[in-house]
Design brief:
With 339 residues, the chain is of the alpha/beta class. It has 2 domains: 230 residues, Vaccinia Virus protein VP39 (Rossmann fold, 3-Layer(aba) Sandwich); 54 residues. The chain contains 9 helices and 8 strands. Strands 3-2-1-4-5-7-6-8 form an 8-stranded mixed beta sheet, sandwiched between helices. α5 crosses α6. The longest helix is centred in the last third of the chain and has 47 residues. It starts with a helix and ends with a helix. This is Putative tRNA (cytidine(32)/guanosine(34)-2'-O)-methyltransferase.
Length: 339
């Protein structure tokens, strides 16, 4: 959650702060759940690639009702600030040990649902980003096959691409129903969507493994993309538009009600709900504070200037040498003419 002008006018960004969600992505899971009811009667849930924890917050809010014995396990390589009631594992989703730890926390039982909002650090090279996201989904499915019970649910973020149909068809081999969901809070200009797989029913003889490096075409034998149940837009279509920039001076937080004059306050910037506990760029920030980058930049600039100076001096020396050679040649030529 940054501080750019676009972010300040992003209604879901602002509502996330006002309602203490760690990221605007919380609304995506809530809108999918409102449409499909995927969290109904769930008592064991797993959140993969969970940091900073907005989806775990939604799970905690919707599962931990009075009298409920629900358990939520959140997994990420990065540490995450605590969330009441959520069991956090700092681990690798491609490790069998991580899957075993999940089962242990569920007292030997398997999960009712596995969700994954993870995405790679995008490069801007669309084909590469789409491939990396597909591989991440594969890793998420691999661990899901270890920890998800029969008839369970799997939800994961995908990047829509020309090969998406193959992914849908492959998932259909393991789940009876597959939907592609696009929450209202997901920007329409983004290729982001969510593949929702219902009723986990692996083929007879299927053995879960972490070693599968890619879903092959044979995994979708006899299954084509036309078996996908449909593309579903989630959320109130008359509600907030994730692409629109709303003015900061109006009562945008009160869509349908009458607002008192004292509520019509100008938007004020609010700090993030939960800053990263140990971000990958932490060392770089410390170096920036200490002026290390400035010193490195100054040294590089100094070295560059020195290199340019040496280059000029070398060119000047070469030009003088060439002039000297030309002068000697002219004198020799003149001497030959006199003779």
């Amino acid at each position: 959650m940054g501080k750019t002008s676009r972010d300040k006018r992003d209604i879901y960004y602002r509502l996330a702060k006002e309602n203490k969600w760690r990221a605007r992505s919380a609304f995506k899971l809530m809108q999918i759940d409102d449409e499909f009811g995927i969290l109904k009667d769930v008592t064991r849930a797993v959140d993969l690639c969970a940091a900073p924890g907005s989806w775990s917050q939604v799970l905690a809010k919707r599962l931990f009702v009075e009298g409920s014995d629900a358990k939520v396990v959140a997994i990420d390589l990065q540490p995450m600030a605590p969330i009441p009631g959520v069991i956090q594992l700092q681990g690798d989703i491609t490790s069998v040990d991580t899957a075993n730890q999940v089962i242990e926390h569920f007292s030997g039982e398997k999960s009712d649902i596995v969700i994954c909002d993870g995405a790679p650090d995008v490069t801007g090279i669309h084909s590469l980003d789409e491939f990396m996201q597909a591989e991440l989904i594969l890793a998420a499915f691999n661990i899901t096959s270890h920890v998800l019970k029969t008839k369970g649910t799997f939800l994961a973020k995908i990047f829509r691409s020309r090969n998406s149909s193959l992914l849908y068809a492959q998932m259909k081999k393991y789940f009876k129903k597959v939907y592609l969901a696009k929450p209202r809070s997901s920007r329409q200009s983004s290729c982001e969507a969510f593949i929702l797989c219902l009723d986990y029913s692996p083929p007879e003889g299927f053995v879960p493994t972490m070693s599968k490096s890619s879903l092959e075409l044979t995994d979708a034998s006899g299954v084509t993309a036309d078996v996908i149940d449909g593309f579903v837009t989630c959320g109130d279509l008359s509600g907030w538009d994730s692409e629109k920039s709303y003015p900061l001076d109006i009562d945008v937080s009160f869509q349908k009600g009458i607002v008192d004059e004292d509520q019509k306050n100008r938007y004020e910037f609010k700090d993030v709900v939960q800053p990263p506990t140990d971000p990958a760029y932490k060392e770089a920030l410390e170096m920036k504070k200490k002026g290390v980058f400035s010193k490195v930049s100054a040294d590089l600039t100094k070295e560059l200037k020195a290199e340019r100076k040496r280059g000029r001096e070398q060119r000047k020396a070469k030009e003088e040498e060439e002039r000297a050679v030309d002068s000697v040649a002219e004198k020799l030529e003149a001497a030959q003419i006199e003779k």
